[in-house]
């Protein structure tokens, strides 16, 4: 089963996304990319989910499982949407920008509306997030394809309010951006109300912050803010994606955040 919702692209959501995407740093780094490129096959999974959706926990579990099965090749991202909050449980990780991001993907992919759980792979196709057979078929298929770009991360370190890092990208970078994503590796929540009432949910790969960076140079330094919902006990991962203007993902890298 999936849960469907028709989400209008309200000006509020557009303003929220614009504010999210404008965080950027343009300082050039001494980080010089290695001679060899990092253009190995890549699979980026973006799961749109909600703690208020009874159909979502199996997809949440599946996303974490495939990340562990393919620790180097698969980049797992869990975007919690806010449009099910009204039915009784406010998802603590939900953001309006996540719902808008999903809407933009579905507009691109020709699907009228949003649904959960939805899996988007490399920004180029979507399917029900709990469909294990489909997921493994697509992973195995895409792992046979060479990535268009390469990207590397170095010196990923958390400060008081932000994570700083260095990056280097290879390949044709024309009309492309870097998307930096801060992820909580795992968090357990006792749900008190809504469709998952009295369930203890274990969510992983939780997206809590994003920033888009101009690729004016192939290497540089940047930072991404640590939001207040991140706890001292949380283990964090930084994911860096190369993305086209049409939302296709052409490269990815990840690193644990030193805290």
From TrEMBL:
<protein>
    <recommendedName>
        <fullName>DUF1223 domain-containing protein</fullName>
    </recommendedName>
</protein>
<feature type="signal peptide">
    <location>
        <begin position="1"/>
        <end position="19"/>
    </location>
</feature>
<dbReference type="InterPro" id="IPR010634">
    <property type="entry name" value="DUF1223"/>
</dbReference>
<dbReference type="InterPro" id="IPR036249">
    <property type="entry name" value="Thioredoxin-like_sf"/>
</dbReference>
<dbReference type="Pfam" id="PF06764">
    <property type="entry name" value="DUF1223"/>
</dbReference>
<keyword id="KW-0732">Signal</keyword>
């Amino acid at each position: 089963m999936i849960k469907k919702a028709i989400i209008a692209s309200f000006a509020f959501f557009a303003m929220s996304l614009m504010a999210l995407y404008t965080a950027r740093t343009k300082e050039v780094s001494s980080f010089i990319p290695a001679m060899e490129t990092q253009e190995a096959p890549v699979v980026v999974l973006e799961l749109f989910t909600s703690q208020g959706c009874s159909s979502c926990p199996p997809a949440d579990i599946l996303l974490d499982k495939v990340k562990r099965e393919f620790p180097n090749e698969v980049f797992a991202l869990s975007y919690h949407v806010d449009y099910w909050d009204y039915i009784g449980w406010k998802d603590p990780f939900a953001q309006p920008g996540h719902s808008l991001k999903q809407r933009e993907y579905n507009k691109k992919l020709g699907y009228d509306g949003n649904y959960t759980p939805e899996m988007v792979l490399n920004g180029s196709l979507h399917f029900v997030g709990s469909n294990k057979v489909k997921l493994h078929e697509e992973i195995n298929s895409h792992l046979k394809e060479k990535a268009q770009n390469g990207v590397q991360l170095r010196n990923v370190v958390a400060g008081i309010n932000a994570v700083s890092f260095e990056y280097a990208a290879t390949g044709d970078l024309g009309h492309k951006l870097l998307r930096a994503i801060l992820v909580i590796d795992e968090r357990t929540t006792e749900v008190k109300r809504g469709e998952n009432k009295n369930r203890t949910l274990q969510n992983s790969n939780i997206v809590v912050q994003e920033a888009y960076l101009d690729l004016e140079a192939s290497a540089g330094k940047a930072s991404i803010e640590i939001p207040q919902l991140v706890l001292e006990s949380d283990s964090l991962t930084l994911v860096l994606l190369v993305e086209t203007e049409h939302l296709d993902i052409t490269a990815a890298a990840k690193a644990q955040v030193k805290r």
